[in-house]
């Protein structure tokens, strides 16, 4: 890695260790998280690795054309204001960390520093792949020139107050942006003037009652009302709008009519109907979930078909290893789902 990039990363690390409790930082580092500055992090995605080693790419490659080997999985905020039971991430409170996640950043880092830091850290992470004889070297070289960032790693990225500048900084480098939000940050969405390449909202439940059970929101009434207001604003966002449904048997895989109503309000171009995976934080017994609640392929496809019938959307595709079905709003969305990327 060129000296100046090492300098950037080390300066960032030296100046600002992440603003998370030390014990949590250690836990996350053991899980492969690499911190950048006070409140950002990256972790190599399994599909970035597999797509270099054995050619297996993620479902976003199949659905939208993302080159998994050129993707950075990252976040600009470690903290989150929800505690969804199916979430893979560590929920600090469950591990006994008293930590005000809502004020995770304290002083927020500058967008350019975050972007440079994430790119440098990504390159540092993949350096080790060069010596692996299974690795496709053409893809490894391309991976050193990232073309996509998925702001979906952990936490709520819209906590970061300089999202417009950050998105612009990525786009100025020809890097596409997939931004995944939990749908509660209404003012942050109103303030979003630079559009991500694709904007995701996680739709955790079909109605308020189940939303409370899944998200474990501290103030359910206010959080649900916020979510509904968020969907209204989301429906007018001038970019590729996507709903992500993560379904758990005997929890939120029910009330198709409720999901159809939320789709009517949010007007997404794409709906991803995805089976929950019993891994990471989701295995914490405090979450009350079990392996048996992971939906099977046919039940995901069946549920997707039911939503399509209720909404007029069409079932456009399915990716088996991620157990996710894709619904498209109309012919236009279906025709343009594969993105023409700058690089
Ligand atoms: S888009 Fe998501 S799943 Fe695909 S490589 Fe990037 S981080 Fe991984």
List keywords for this structure.
single chain; disordered N terminus; TIM Barrel; 10 strands; ten-stranded mixed sheet; binds iron/sulfur cluster; alpha/beta; 343 residues
Q: Can you summarize this structure?
A:
Helix content is 38%, strand content 15%. It contains 13 helices and ten strands.
Structural class: alpha/beta
Give me the CATH fold name: TIM Barrel
- Beta-strand level of the residues, as a percent range? 5-15%
CATH superfamily: Aldolase class I
Q: Are any ligands bound, and if so which?
A: iron/sulfur cluster
- Overall geometric form: globular
Mean pLDDT: 92
Number of domains: 1
Q: Mind telling me which CATH architecture this is?
A: Alpha-Beta Barrel
Question: What's the structural blueprint in terms of helices and strands?
Answer:
Elements: H1 3-15, H2 22-30, E1 34-36, E2 40-42, H3 46-53, H4 59-64, E3 71-75, H5 111-127, H6 137-143, E4 148-151, H7 163-172, E5 176-181, H8 186-190, E6 198-202, H9 208-215, H10 220-234, E7 240-247, H11 256-266, E8 270-275, H12 297-311, E9 314-319, E10 324-328, H13 331-335
Parallel strand pairs: 3-4, 4-5, 5-6, 6-7, 7-8
Antiparallel strand pairs: 1-2, 2-3, 8-10, 9-10
Helix pairs in contact: 1-5, 5-7, 11-12
The chain binds iron/sulfur cluster.
What can you tell me about this protein's structure?
The chain has 13 helices and ten strands. It has 343 residues and is of the alpha/beta class. It has one domain (3-335): Alpha-Beta Barrel (TIM Barrel), CATH 3.20.20. Strands 1-2-3-4-5-6-7-8-10-9 form a ten-stranded mixed β-sheet. Helix 1 crosses helix 5, helix 5 crosses helix 7 (163-172) and helix 11 (256-266) crosses helix 12 (297-311). The two termini are 22 Å apart. The model is unreliable at 1-15 (pLDDT under 50). Bound molecules: iron/sulfur cluster. Residues 45, 47-48, 58, 60, 66, 68, 71, 73, 150 line the site of iron/sulfur cluster.
């Amino acid at each position: 890695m060129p000296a100046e990039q090492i300098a950037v990363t080390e300066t960032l690390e030296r100046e600002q260790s992440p603003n998370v409790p030390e014990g949590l930082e250690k836990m996350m580092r053991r899980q492969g998280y690499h911190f950048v500055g006070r409140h950002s992090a990256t972790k190599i995605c399994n599909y970035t690795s597999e797509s270099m080693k054995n050619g297996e790419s993620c479902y976003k490659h199949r659905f939208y054309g993302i080159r998994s080997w050129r993707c950075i999985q990252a976040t600009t905020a470690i903290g989150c204001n929800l505690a969804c039971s199916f979430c893979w991430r560590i929920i600090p409170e469950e591990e006994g960390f008293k930590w005000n996640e809502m004020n995770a950043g304290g002083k927020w880092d500058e967008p350019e520093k975050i972007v440079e830091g994430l790119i440098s850290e990504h390159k540092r992470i993949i350096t080790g792949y060069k010596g692996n004889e299974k690795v496709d070297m053409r893809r490894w070289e391309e991976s050193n020139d990232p073309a996509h960032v998925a702001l979906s790693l952990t936490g709520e990225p819209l906590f970061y107050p300089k999202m417009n500048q950050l998105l612009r900084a990525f786009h100025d480098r020809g890097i596409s942006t997939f931004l995944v939000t939990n749908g509660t940050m209404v003012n942050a969405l109103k303030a979003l003037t630079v559009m991500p390449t694709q904007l995701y909202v996680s739709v955790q439940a079909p109605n308020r009652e189940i939303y409370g059970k899944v998200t474990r929101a501290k103030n359910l009434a206010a959080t649900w009302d916020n979510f509904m207001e968020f969907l209204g604003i989301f429906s007018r966002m001038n970019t590729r709008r996507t709903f992500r449904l993560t379904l758990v048997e005997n929890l939120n895989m029910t009330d198709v009519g409720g999901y159809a109503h939320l789709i009517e309000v949010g007007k997404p171009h794409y709906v991803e109907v995805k089976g929950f995976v019993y891994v990471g934080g989701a295995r914490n017994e405090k979450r009350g979930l079990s392996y048996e609640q992971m939906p099977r392929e046919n039940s995901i496809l069946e549920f997707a078909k039911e939503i399509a019938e209720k909404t007029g959307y069409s079932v456009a595709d399915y990716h088996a290893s991620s157990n996710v079905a894709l619904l498209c709003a109309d012919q236009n969305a279906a025709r343009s789902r594969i993105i023409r990327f700058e690089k």
